[in-house]
């Protein structure tokens, strides 16, 4: 039984801030010498991002609804508990908004949902997002729930893989997959280059997908296959740990280089003949990662346009980002029935997750 993504919904925090404003804010922080300021300018300007969304309205001149992110123009460094409290306060609404949009576009009512899979790596609490999604959407109390936590940017693909496995085992299943990430809660004011790079790309957002058995009468993205691969390098170059002042991202310049060296062999192994791919959904961990993938796979300059556009408009929203790209491909009127889609995402490890999808667009 083939499983299909029937619809994708997205949600963004109400506060949108320009990349240039964030650049100037970070560069003006106390303790940043001229070298650090130059690094901030270079990293933010090279990110190919115009705007990002955040649950912290202070960063766009608003008042602090919850966590105080600024004090007299200086970024604060709240303890991890305070940041996590803000996640607990603001993430559930984004999960619910994205999930509602996905359900509304799927043709299924809320009473049809049999399984919920939630994804996040930017906060922790129990009962968790899976529980609250069932409660907030009024789903059946018998819905099976799973939460994939702390997998990082690549987690949407394992979540879709789990959904596909559930549908294969139970063709009547309707699986709601929802990912929400509040990366801005963990921005650090450190002048360390890794923290500057992380602050220059990460953002907040949520996305959800409804996965069920393929219906020949409905458009969708059939989930045809998955693969995962752990590289020999990168364990120390991309990591995500819990610190005393938030979660700390390590993202060294070696990450795009490792991906550039490894991705051609990995992609051919897990995706097959790349010449048969009609569309690409590559997680935009950063502009340099997309550049390396494009060069290593010898892709046309337009092949990663959907990934670059999501990065430009929203930044890197960790696990939710790939679903934004798949949403755009599913809605693209220029795409035709039978188009083959390759999805790639990268997570701590360095781990590569891949999926093969086929666009189904029945004639009206």
What do you see in this structure?
This protein is an alpha+beta fold. The protein is built from 10 helices and 15 strands. A hairpin with a 3-residue loop joins strand 14 (340-347) and strand 15 (351-360). The relative contact order is 0.18.
Provide a compact summary of the structure.
With 364 residues, the chain is of the alpha+beta class. Helix content is 35%, strand content 27%. A hairpin with a 3-residue loop joins strand 14 and strand 15.
Throw out a few tags for this protein.
364 residues, alpha+beta, nine-stranded mixed β-sheet, two-stranded antiparallel ribbon, 10 helices, 15 strands, globular
Topology record:
Layout: E1 3-11, E2 15-18, H1 19-27, H2 34-45, E3 51-54, E4 70-71, E5 74-75, H3 80-104, E6 115-120, H4 129-137, E7 144-149, H5 156-169, E8 174-182, H6 193-201, E9 204-213, E10 220-230, E11 238-243, E12 246-251, H7 254-271, E13 279-282, H8 287-296, H9 305-314, H10 321-331, E14 340-347, E15 351-360
Parallel strand pairs: 6-7, 6-8, 13-14
Antiparallel strand pairs: 1-9, 1-10, 2-3, 4-5, 8-9, 10-15, 11-12, 14-15
Q: Strand sequence of the main sheet, in spatial order?
A: 7-6-8-9-1-10-15-14-13
- Helix content percent band: 25-40%
What's the shape? globular
Strand element count: 15
Assembly type = single chain
Main beta sheet strand tally, sense and closure: 9 strands, mixed
Structural class: alpha+beta
Q: Which series of helices and strands comes N to C?
A: EEHHEEEHEHEHEHEEEEHEHHHEE
Distance between the termini: 24 Å
